[in-house]
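chain below, 344 aa
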Amino acid sequence: MNERPSCKTIAAEAQVSRMTVSMALRDHPRIAPETRERIKAIAARQGYTPDPNLTELMRYLRKRDVSKDEPVIALLNGRRRPLREFSEEALLIRQGAIEQAQKLGFKTEDFWLHAPGMRVKRMVQILETRGIRGVVVLPVETLRDVFSLPQENFVGVATCAVAAKLGFNQVHPHFYQAMHVGISALVDRGFKRIGFCISDAEDERSNHLFNCYLTWYQQSIPANDRIPPLMGSQISREDLLDWVQRHQPDVVYSTQSAHYQWLLEGGWRVPDDLGFVALGPADEKAQGIARVDIGYRKIGATAIDILKTRLANERIGPTDNPAVTLIRGNWIDGASISQPSAVA
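prediction:
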């Protein structure tokens, strides 16, 4: 009786190990392309078909053992500034990643691409030597922070939109939807003259999507109610107060919760004179301020979940069509805006 085609019979003809056959049939990047094709040709000639029950069992076992094979996930800082100078938003993303990794049995370790004497090539050597395959790229500030990381032996997830050029899967806020949530809530409450504040760096990090929605919205309202956004590389308290005095918005919608205090210091009564809404503040203790909450911790946690799935299935290497996961914003009411009945 002829032996049923299996990894064993394929390995015997190909003169390789059964592990090599298994990895080749799963297109594992550690097996050379020519070897993969030769093994697949032998499998086809022998009439090999995988046992679905055994395949599922092996997938399950790999998932259970992944934390042993890949115990560390790298949290990679590509900024030119150290971790201690990160924004609160970026630190919350990092914290969310650490907490989720711990739940799933992974360890995390911080790596800084611009540490003294460090280069991309040296970083790759360190990660490969340590056997680290999973990488979470922490948010970068601008396009100049985007780097090129060889992907053949890694699986990565970037946690900001600016890092799209990396070619990794991405997780970041749903900027357009978050802007929509805030403006829709204000319109529902009767506000008409909505003044928006954003720094140039925040505009770039959002891929200009905050302003895209604002531009679309302003086309549908009377010209007299269209307030030009306050933008700049640095927005000072004087800039904000001058802009409010000049354009007279009935509500300030800002990416900086500190602007709320500046308005109070400038003599504006909030919400009696004008309202205030914060867009995505990282300050989890910002009580009383109406805001659109962006789940920064969820961004980090979701990045770990994506890595877990790919590592468990040994899907190491470049992604042909990187996916983008968007984290939605949520409206949180607060005393910094008037109730609908009080708005003229």
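The first helix runs from residue 7 to 14. The first strand starts at residue 72 and ends at 77.
thats it, cya
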